[in-house]
Amino acid sequence: MTADGRNPAAVLEMRGITKRYPGVVANDDIDLTVRSGEIHALLGENGAGKSTLMNILYGLAAPDAGEILLDGTPVDIDGPNDAIRRGISMVHQHFMLVPSLSVAENILLGDEPMANLVLLDRRAAARRIRELGASFGWEVNPDSAVGSLSVGWQQRIEILKALYRKARVLVLDEPTASLTPQETREIFDVLRRLRSEGYAIIFISHKLYEVLEVADRITVIRRGRVVGSRRPSETDEDDLAELMVGREVQLTVDRGESHPGEPMLTVTGLHVQDDRGRGVVHDVSLEVRVGEIFGIAGVAGNGQDELVEALLGLRSVSSGKVNLGGRAVTGASPRRLHQLGVGFVPADRHRYGIVLSFPLTDNLCLNDYYHAPFARGMVRDDDAIRSYADTLITQYDVRTHSSAAFAGTLSGGNQQKVVVAREFDGELRLLVLDQPTRGLDVGSIEFIHRQVIAKRDSGVAILLVSAELDEVLELSDRIGVMFRGRIVQVLDARKTNREEVGLLMATGGRATEAAS
Amino acid sequence: MSEGPLTTETLQREHPPQASVPERRRRLPPLRRALRILLLPAGAIFLALLVGAAIMIASSPLVRGSVNPMLPLTAYGALVAGSVGSFNAIVSTLVQATPLVLAGLAVGVGFKAGLFNIGAQGQFLMGGLAAAAMGIATAGLPPIAAIPISVAAGMVAGMAYGFVPGFLKAYTGAHEVVTTIMLNYVAIQVVAYVASGPLRGETATFARTETITTATLPVIAGREGHIGILFAAIAVPVIAWLLFRSTLGFEIRTVGANPDAARYAGMRPRVLIMLTMSVAGLLAGLAGATEILGQVGHMPAAYATAVGFDAIAVALLGRAHPVGILFAGLLFGAMRAGAGLMQIQAGIPVQMVNVLQAVILFFLAAELIVRYVFRVRGAGVEVAEMQTITRSYGEQAAK
Lengths: 516, 399
What we know:
The complex is a heterodimer of chains A (516) and B (399). By secondary structure, chain A is of the alpha/beta class. Chain A contains 18 helices and 22 strands. Chain A has helices at residues 50-57, 80-85, 103-108, 122-134, 151-164, 181-196, 208-214, 237-245, 304-311, 334-339, 349-353, 360-364, 382-395, 412-424, 442-457, 469-475, 498-507, 509-515, and strands at residues 10-21, 24-35, 38-44, 65-70, 73-75, 88-91, 169-173, 200-205, 217-222, 225-230, 263-273, 279-289, 293-297, 317-324, 327-328, 342-345, 375-376, 379-380, 430-434, 461-466, 478-483, 486-492. A 6-stranded mixed sheet of chain A has the order 6-7-8-3-9-10, sandwiched between helices. Chain A has a 6-stranded mixed sheet with strand order 16-19-20-13-21-22, with helices on both faces. In chain A, strands 2-1-4-5 form a 4-stranded antiparallel sheet, covered by helices on one side. In chain A, strand 9 (217-222) and strand 10 (225-230) form a beta hairpin. Chain B is mostly helical. In chain B, strand 1 (219-221) and strand 2 form a beta hairpin. The chains are: A alpha/beta (516), B mainly alpha (399). Chains A and B meet through helix 10, helix 11, strand 18 and helix 15 of A and helix 1, helix 9, helix 10 and helix 16 of B.
């Protein structure tokens, strides 16, 4: 399946790209051909080598072997500026936008049109941005601050930025990671439109159904090698997942029967404020029973984060009550809650979950560092810490060369496994999972989902917060839809569907109208 | 997939660990690791010596009337001879290094907690002043009582002076860089007032306190090797133990590396910030007490010292690690000890030492230059170490 180098429509060709890092071959003889008017999906688990390949394309890393051809001519890409000049643009997963600057300023950043030596030609820039937006049917206001825009709009701005720089090859790194189903559909329309206008698009994802829906060709990378290339018509999700992971994968976890018991977590009339003192959680009442998964679905930013932080003692409660197994724990400290058997997998693992500059040993005993066997009095017991870490690393299949490795050197999936290992271990009563699989690959997702089900079956009450609709639908027993800080409806997960939940997430349904 | 209950064990059977990916990467052997960590500071020092040599050669026509390309060799030779060339030279190096190591630890401990303690100077001065005051007050007591009381007074005063910015940071969010700089000025004025007012010595010819008598630190080696050297020698392993072996040190380092994770782990960032600043103040205060009781013998109203600022350079060169700080302190101490001989033998003013120190700091800050010259790649360890240090510049107050 090596592409024919003389194919006239091939805009970009990467041939035999090899990149070695100490001890790891990140890219091993990778071939990738992207044609004009094609959406080419790059599929692979975290750490498979997608990012390395794209970094090489973007001039951020030099390949040890192989060559890059643009329009059939070998090129040597010397840094991102050079890549942009040659028409390669990247839309990163984490937007590279300056929130306090306006749309126009963000788009111009790095390539400012000058009216003269000193002054920007703002008017010309604004006009071009409006025109560019209008060609997609978007009404872009060049003067609005990027920080005030929704995630979906920020993404459009990123795409406009690429187009403004006259990109021909557009790389989108997991563009749908933080979008609602509706926004995802819209971004796909944009991609299809770009395709029809002759752009070459590289679409990086590990959401299989998205790739199947939008791509013209799918290249799968595993452990630094291309393991297959498919057209969507020739393949399906199971086939792709198997290619990606290298073994058969259960894509939808069989949640099985659950046997809910007594209520474990009872929240009544909870009100919480954000950092600026605005009420963001209003009168939330919910109940999570033993052996049950209660899902909270909602578009990001509808109060879920604050609700979770309040439940874990990381944010103060304005009013309302929280009960854990009949014990009042409103406003209890994180340590107290941990002692009572509350585990927490945070949405942003780099914030609450992990200390990147610490070795795995320290990360794995982060909550329990202060007591036996990890410490006697004030003295830490390194041997106990290490052997505990080694046990968890094997048990939870964390891929690392040693428990002394710094957490920051691990892939995202493995970092998440470290958090899961620490929080799932020990006597548990309640697990709070906030987007536990965000940004993870199918293999890791499967593993974590099965662990969650296993915990449920062992009698743990689980509160699952996720913007990933499928995840909530697949795992939960009941789903509370959160909209503007309220739980607008609680649904039986086995009797509802994507559309119903999606609509409630987007509009809040009738319940809000009645409440407001 | 297997039947029956799902447990971690069954999951593990179904997901056998794939140790081959990524290929097993061995941790570097300790010696190679040490060399790797040392490369950057050593490179910075080497480049600084070259820059120093260039300055000496370039300025030689102004001083001697002709270009003297051999001057740097003479100068550096004298610097080495004056710092390690004899028993007394070595003792002198140790004496010079003592306050630098202690105050360097004060800055380094702060770095570990994500705090940039620029106030070591003020804490040093307050420690010195308190030690001098107690030293004078205990003049009637025998040394066995007077010395511990005076040293302890210096430590407590420094600690209190470190606690203040810690408290302000923890409860009002006032950035420690700003508050400690301001408190440095306050300390200078307090010293000036006390030593020229209430505690001014009757017999002194210029504004200073009485001469310290029984509280003077005894000399244990050579001409000037006072017992304060031991304080520094003890402080290094104690602080290393505190940071790396104790739960408290783990808390301090966690707060420095990730305050949110620390909060979730049940640590109390506010308490830890106040505690760390107090420990830092205690160390700087001890440095001040040692210097006043062991070297100066009184507290001058206009005490011309920069130990507290040099300590920042020491902590940076030592990468905020106690052992690194020990070596950095010894190096700077050696340069100070040898500067006199350098001036005599090569005619290079002692201030050249400050130039060298500044250039070392410059190269450390602009480490890209050093990396480029010596082709050093960034090592994970250093990145991790420096992350904590650089956090302190921009990080806002912990909740």
